[in-house]
Design a protein that fits this description.
442 residues; mainly beta; Methylamine Dehydrogenase, Chain H; 5-stranded antiparallel β-sheet; globular
Length: 442
């Protein structure tokens, strides 16, 4: 199984924003929704067991062989307001579409739902409160509110990062506050209970604050730390290293820390089928160095951790800018074990910098990114044909296939496009708003 763990960076203090919800349409709150209960720490089943585990809560859902996918989409009004909806669809393939007739509206502006194939649940996590809301997916695809878990007792103020990493097992998942990563939270998606925490013992580096992206394989949880200057000062400046913290998920204990000076920022992780994890910087930060100078921004590099290793592979260092003709690049994203996609900045597509470079922030908000594709190990990447420049991109792995969500020119609708291993963008599901979350439920 190939999966991806992504930490999406929103500047000016933002992060992944997931939300609690209110029901619309066919969704009905359950008056008997269970309260979170204590869950003693116990050995967890492997992730693969999720697909075969009995869904005893809903026999019709369990026995159905019809595919079902959960979608979250953000709809913006002419007045600038945003509304996020959660719904299910039977297919995300070419020629399919959806509407909002059976959707439920979530109460926060950015709330990508998350979950795992084989269980009749979707989860939404709040960016303004320390809570995760669980939704039950019924056999007809409708949704109803289920349990709510609060992480206030362990000092959490928000829980939106809970959707950034796949569940490790049916009864175990991890997350941490990306911008205040003092500890990793361990929780149980089955009982909605807190299982414990893993202290990270991270410190400031001058005015540089630590940030963490999580990645996992069957025998390890990795916390990769970068340092960035506080948003109140100058967020364009980063530290001179990253650190990788290896954690044994059987005991949830830290077993190693390694400093790595070849790169200074990682936000994206993409995993090959054998467990090899590729780390790369956020494409949003990639243009900074070319705009503002060599002391600014992030290193143009990607590193990897091989199966069985607890640190980055010595001697493996991909200079992303060198394989894209000198253009700033980031967001290394695997479409197969041998084909990757990159988000590449094209300065000729945006407004030129003025003499004093005072307009650089406005320029960075313009649609200057295009997808490029790279045969892993080749000397050069290639620009993907037939695409429109964009400012940001959502990426997903569903059924071991990679997708991006492309907004229409007027921003009113989105089309999923498969990042095809042949190096093309192939059209899929279309619907209103901007798709910000996709995963398979059944």
């Amino acid at each position: 199984m190939r999966n991806v763990s992504i930490a999406i960076v929103l500047v000016l203090g933002g992060g992944l924003a997931c939300g609690s919800a209110k029901p619309l349409g066919l969704a009905q709150p359950r008056p008997d929704a269970p309260e979170p209960t204590a869950d003693p720490l116990q050995a967890s089943d492997p992730l693969a067991s999720l697909e075969t585990m009995a869904a005893s809560e809903d026999l019709a859902w369990q026995t159905s062989d019809e595919p079902l996918y959960a979608i979250t989409t953000r709809v913006s009004t002419a007045g600038g307001a945003s509304h996020v909806f959660l719904l299910t669809v039977p297919s995300i393939g070419s020629g399919t579409s959806f509407d909002l007739q059976r959707a439920v509206e979530l109460s926060e502006a950015d709330s990508p739902a998350f979950g795992v194939r084989g269980r009749p649940f979707a989860y939404t996590a709040s960016g303004s409160a320390p809570t995760v809301q669980r939704w039950r997916v019924l056999d007809d695809g409708s949704l109803e509110q289920d349990a709510v878990s609060s992480f206030a007792s362990i000092g959490m103020r928000r829980a939106d990062s809970a959707g950034a990493l796949s569940f490790y097992a049916r009864d175990k998942a991890y997350f941490c506050n990306r911008f205040d990563p003092s500890e990793i939270v361990i929780w149980n998606p089955e009982t909605m209970a807190i299982r414990g925490t893993i202290p990270l013992d991270l410190v400031l580096d001058g005015q540089m604050r630590p940030q963490v992206v999580l990645s996992q394989r069957a025998d390890r949880l990795f916390a990769v730390v970068s340092w960035q200057q506080a948003f109140a000062y100058d967020w364009t400046r980063f530290g001179d290293r990253v650190q990788i913290i290896a954690i044994d998920p059987s005991s949830d204990s830290v077993i190693g820390r390694v400093e790595e000076s070849r790169c200074n920022q990682f936000s994206w992780v993409s995993n090959a089928s054998d467990g090899t994890a590729y780390f790369s910087p956020a494409s949003y930060y990639a243009p900074l160095r070319s705009m503002l100078g060599e002391s600014i921004g992030v290193d143009s590099c990607a590193l990897r951790i091989l199966p069985g290793a607890d640190s980055f592979e010595p001697g493996y260092d991909v200079d992303l800018q060198s394989i894209t003709g000198g253009r700033p690049a980031g967001d290394f994203f695997l479409a197969s074990d041998t084909r990757a996609f990159l988000r590449v900045w094209h300065s000729e597509l945006v407004t030129p910098l003025d003499d004093g470079k005072s307009n650089w922030e406005a320029v960075m908000q313009e649609p200057g990114f295009l997808w490029w594709t790279w045969q892993v190990g080749a000397e050069q990447a290639e620009r993907v044909p037939d695409q429109r420049p964009s400012r940001e991109a959502q990426t997903f792995v569903v059924d071991d296939e990679s997708y991006t969500a492309t907004l229409s020119e007027d921003g009113s609708s989105t089309q999923l496009e498969q990042l095809d291993p042949q190096g093309l963008l192939r059209p899929g599901l279309r619907g209103p708003g901007q798709i910000i979350g996709v995963f398979r439920v059944r």
